Here is the input.
Amino acid sequence: MPKMKIAVVTNPGRDFEIQERDVPQPGPGQVRILVQACGICFSDHLVKDTPMPGQLYPRSPGHEVAGVIDDVGAGVTFWKKGQRVGIGWHGGQDGTCLQCRRGDFGNCANLNITGISYDGGYAEYMLAPVAALAQMPNSLDPADAAPLLCAGITTFNALRHSRAFPGDLVAVQGIGGLGHLGVQFANKFGYRVAAISRGKETEPPKDSAPTFL
Ligand SMILES: [Zn+2]
Ligand SMILES: [Zn+2]
Here is the structure.
């Protein structure tokens, strides 16, 4: 049985532990993903330090995953070995509850969260239900792509639903893990963009030409 390394939290408040485990076999409706890169999100600390109700341990966090499908389980037809995929916070829906039948998968009564409901991307391989997969172009570098799966989606969707029109002034407050993506999306959306932040580390270089506004 081939082995893999996985970083797990065994109990809340404990340090990560690197464990060796058997490479998992995908069950029905699941794929196995060879993890190429996994972003680190602030929400990973829920598993690490302040568990959500019902959190089971040990658990490997990580919901900004870029990888390649390595094997598919029974009943999986669309997804094939070798396809590039991303997995974000949305770890899959049941497809049968009232919210799902309304197409509101994000509020599924039995929603799975990647890296919380099941082991996430802090591992060499992970399993995911097909409902959690997003197809990803081969041209994207895995390390660049991974943060788009949570920080990127969060800021992209916030702008998309903001009702701002091209040419409007959009202010992005806090130029950190999410904000630096928000500024770039807003710029590409055609907004006039103001970046609001504090601290010298996020200040643009003095000699740089103003990019926005
Ligand atoms: Zn996140
Ligand atoms: Zn549902």
